[in-house]
Specification:
heterodimer; A: about 500 residues; alpha/beta; Rossmann fold; 6-stranded mixed beta sheet; 21 strands; B: about 350 residues; mainly alpha; ABC transporter involved in vitamin B12 uptake, BtuC; about 75% helix
């Protein structure tokens, strides 16, 4: 029997770049197949070709052994291949159910929209997915990211997709939501569908995928079947992804932490922070774990001096802060890489009110090289860099201030960054602590927190609800993270039944 | 030239071309020959020394208001208030020049009277600057209001004793406070035209502002704030202060634009003197696209059109020239992301 979906020597060029170069892959029903690779390795292009969205220059996409012709998304959907894009294609002002119907509207005999029928169908799909139905009548713009993603998947399944392709589905999700998503994908696979997930999170691959294919520079490097618990597996995949031996695991110099450099005492801010108390000493890395939206953003804003707490005390010595949103707080996108590398530090390079261009150039060049920013062009705009290199820029600027600060705050330092860059950033964070700085690391990435932190603080509902060692079991951390949420949910449920 | 520079130049050239096309069509509809009228326009402006002098005279305040509006734009602000800042400054210069003792020597009188212009312009811009920096009030609204207030305030001040009774003009400024005309400074061929020392002064100011934006710490930070106030705030650049200072400086420079008519040409201030140059400066800044050369060329273009309107007035109505200018402004503004950006940022701030 021919495979459900087969890619036969697909190739695609963009200008001089071979985005995808002769890749052949097949996907079987009942499996979750992960496609991994660094940014720009060609993952998205490959699967967009598989879903008919992008037309290949060479090669054929076969569904049930038959070539996809014409090569359009509509035809692919008709033949049972659906894709959930990284940036959801939903209409914000329309309700959830209207979005599900969009483009495949069920109508009654008189041409009226048959909303009840569509809803019954969507409800059935949600039941099969094992999720509670999204609020169908709510406008999509009021839904959270998790709901929107479920909606996109419902929309794909309503069109009877047998192959579901998801592009970086967990990039926008919290760890808890990610686990739920994979549980749901597993149910869909068990129902006889082929699930394809593009990701660059290797821990997800290890925990959830049946097959993994690695792409590098447009070429297929390897395809493996995964057996749970196989030792060295992650290392092998990482090597394939990077094309070189991954650097050894981080080594932290262990030394007794010093003076308290950063302290918050009973800090309240609006509806976000409700009495946060924490201390970070010189030379230690304190990780803040928690589901996003529990006050992380506000915590960082208070430490950066961008928000004044309503109540409580903040003691923070000279700090360099890496904000979570590099496009908003991190970079002046339209300005040059040079100016971004020394943003806010012009006073240091000024003599008699005029900028000492040579001194500024020296400092910027030093940071550019240390941060391994590619392309190494100080005159290009920050906007022209890839996401990973933008993040490297922001980190390079922060660690470049090492001599003048006592505290570092890193918020989501490796979000949306590929493996190589993430490792380099982790090394910088470890180096900062080894240099005797107090480091606060706020991250939604639990493995990252575990690898770097000396202590973990769990932030839930604007409070620090637990302090744990970094090697505490997942379940214990997860429970603490959800602590506030679960209590609230129970209260809500009790209220509803009463 | 950078890609952005090329795109900017392209937009400017296209805008000017669209303007001339509209001009040609209008003249043709009016029943005259576009070619002949354009020929006459050029002959009357760049064809004679006097014409050139007059173009330069008209271009002088436009260059300064253009530099003023451009400075604000770089900080992400849209200063519509140059018109009012110029009017208030004109009155201040006229009144100060008339108040000095008759025998004041030029080396005292000129600096004192010239200084009155930026001070008055800056004071007038202080109000929107404070409103913006402290309360986030949109500067487009507040500078427009300040224009109306300037109209009324200048009229009131003239009526309350600054004007010669029965007129709407100040007494003549003292001799020492007049800016010498270029014809008296070794360019006799410009005889009769009102171009004065205000022109080189304007060029120097334009160059200084350009240098300040590019080389000084505050100037660079102002530009960065204009590009992304959030990122600058996150790196502890005092955003509100930079914005406030930029708007006040913009007002000071717009105030300087009053020097050419008041001290260089008439020797007194009269109600309405210099009117239009404030709004013209917006056009110059849009067309000039932030570069010094661009601003000078744009000021010359609009100076030519203004003088040209007078030249061809016998054949076609002057409104045709206004229309030409309007088409250029609209076309260029449409292509200008900075304007859209400044308006949107303000609207959501």
């Amino acid at each position: 029997m021919p495979p459900l979906l087969a890619l036969d020597r697909l190739g695609k060029r963009y200008g001089a770049v071979r985005a995808v170069d002769g890749v052949s892959l097949s996907f079987a029903p009942g499996t979750i197949h992960a496609v991994v690779g660094e940014n720009g390795a060609g993952k998205s292009t490959l699967l967009r070709m598989a879903a008919g969205v992008v037309t290949p220059d060479v090669g054929v996409v076969r569904i049930d052994g038959e070539a996809l012709a014409p090569h359009t998304a509509a035809e692919a959907i008709r033949r049972g291949v659906g894709m959930v894009q990284q940036h959801f294609a939903l209409v914000g002002v329309l309700s959830a159910i209207e979005n599900v119907m969009l483009g495949a509207e069920a109508v009654t005999g008189l041409g009226r929209l048959d909303v009840p029928r569509a809803r019954a169908r969507a409800d059935a799909v949600a039941r099969e997915m094992g999720v509670s139905a999204p609020p169908w009548d709510e406008p999509v713009e009021r839904l959270g990211v998790g709901d929107r993603q479920r909606l996109e998947i419902v929309r794909t399944l309503v069109r009877e997709a047998r192959v579901v392709i998801l592009d970086e589905p967990t990039a926008v999700l919290t760890p808890g939501e990610s686990v739920q998503l994979y549980a749901m994908l597993r149910r869909l696979a068990d129902g006889g569908r082929a699930i394809i997930v593009v990701t660059h999170r290797l821990d997800e691959v290890r925990d959830h995928a049946d097959q993994v294919s690695v792409l590098r520079q447009g070429k297929l490097v390897s395809t493996r079947a995964l057996t749970r618990g196989e030792p060295g597996l992650l290392h092998d995949i990482a090597r394939d992804v990077m094309g070189e031996e991954p650097p050894p695991a981080l080594e932290r110099r262990t030394s007794a932490p010093g003076e308290v450099r950063l302290a918050m005492k009973d800090v309240h801010l609006g509806r976000a922070l409700h009495g946060v108390t924490l201390r970070v000493r010189a030379g230690e890395i304190v990780g803040i774990a928690g589901v996003e939206g529990n006050g992380q953003r506000e915590l960082v804003r208070v430490l950066a001096g961008l928000a004044a707490p309503d109540r409580g005390e903040v003691h923070c010595e000279a700090a360099a802060v890496v904000h979570e949103d590099r496009h908003r707080e991190g970079l002046v996108l339209a300005a040059s890489v040079r100016e971004n590398l020394v943003l806010g530090e012009l006073a240091r390079f000024t003599r008699h009110g005029l900028i000492d261009a040579a001194a500024l150039e020296r400092e910027a060049r030093g940071r550019l090289h240390r941060g391994r920013i590619v392309p190494a062009d100080l005159d290009g705009t920050a906007a022209s860099l890839s996401g990973g290199n933008q993040q490297k820029l922001v980190i390079a600027r922060a660690v470049g201030r090492c001599e003048r600060v006592a505290v570092f705050v890193f918020a989501q330092p490796t979000r949306g960054v590929d493996l190589g860059a993430a490792r380099a950033i982790h090394a910088e964070i470890a180096r900062a602590a080894d240099a005797g700085k107090a480091v606060l690391l706020v991250s939604a990435d639990l493995p990252e927190l575990r690898a770097l932190s000396d202590r973990l603080l769990v932030l839930a509902r604007g409070r620090i609800v637990a302090e744990l060692p970094p090697d505490a079991p997942d379940a214990q951390i997860g429970e603490a993270m959800l602590g506030g949420d679960a209590a609230e949910a129970n209260e809500g449920a009790a209220g509803a039944t009463a | 030239m950078s890609p952005r520079g090329r795109a900017a130049t392209g937009a400017a050239v296209a805008g000017v071309a669209a303007g001339w096309l509209a001009f040609a069509i209008l003249v043709w509809i009016y029943g005259d020959s576009p070619r002949e009228v354009a020929g006459q326009l050029l002959a009357g402006t760049w064809g004679t020394a006097y014409g050139v002098g007059q173009v330069l005279y008209k271009a002088t305040p436009l260059l300064l208001t253009g530099v003023a509006v451009n400075l604000a734009l770089r900080a992400g602000l849209f200063n519509i208030g140059a018109e009012g800042q110029l009017a208030v400054a004109g009155l201040a210069v006229g009144a100060a020049g008339a108040a000095l003792p008759l025998a004041t020597p030029a080396w005292i009188a000129l600096p004192a009277v010239i200084a009155a212009a930026p001070v008055a312009g800056a004071v007038w811009a202080c109000v929107p600057a404070l409103l913006r920096a402290r309360f986030g009030a949109h500067e487009v609204i507040s500078t427009i209001m300040m224009n109306r207030i300037a109209d009324a305030a200048v009229g009131l001040a003239l009526a309350c004793g600054l004007a010669i009774p029965g007129t709407v003009r100040t007494p003549d400024v003292v001799r020492g406070a007049r800016l010498p005309r270029l014809e008296a400074l070794g360019l006799p061929s410009l005889h009769g035209s009102a171009v004065s020392l205000a022109l080189p002064l304007a060029l120097v100011v334009a160059a200084l502002v350009g240098g300040w934006l590019a080389r000084s710490r505050i100037g660079r930070e102002t530009t960065l704030v204009g590009l992304s106030p959030t990122a600058c705030a996150a790196e502890r650049i005092p955003v509100a202060r930079r914005i406030g200072v930029a708007l006040v400086l913009s007002g000071a420079i717009a105030g300087l634009a009053s020097l050419a008519p008041v001290l260089g040409s008439k020797g007194y201030y009269e109600s309405g003197m210099g009117a239009g140059a404030g709004f013209g400066g917006i056009a110059v800044a849009l067309l000039g696209r932030g570069s010094l050369t661009g601003l000078v060329l744009a000021a010359l273009l609009f100076g030519t059109l203004e003088q040209g309107g007078l030249v061809i007035n016998a054949r076609v109505p002057m409104e045709v020239m206004s229309l030409l200018q309007a088409v250029i402004i609209v076309a260029v503004a449409l292509a200008d992301g900075r304007i859209r950006g400044a308006l949107q940022r303000g609207a959501w701030a």
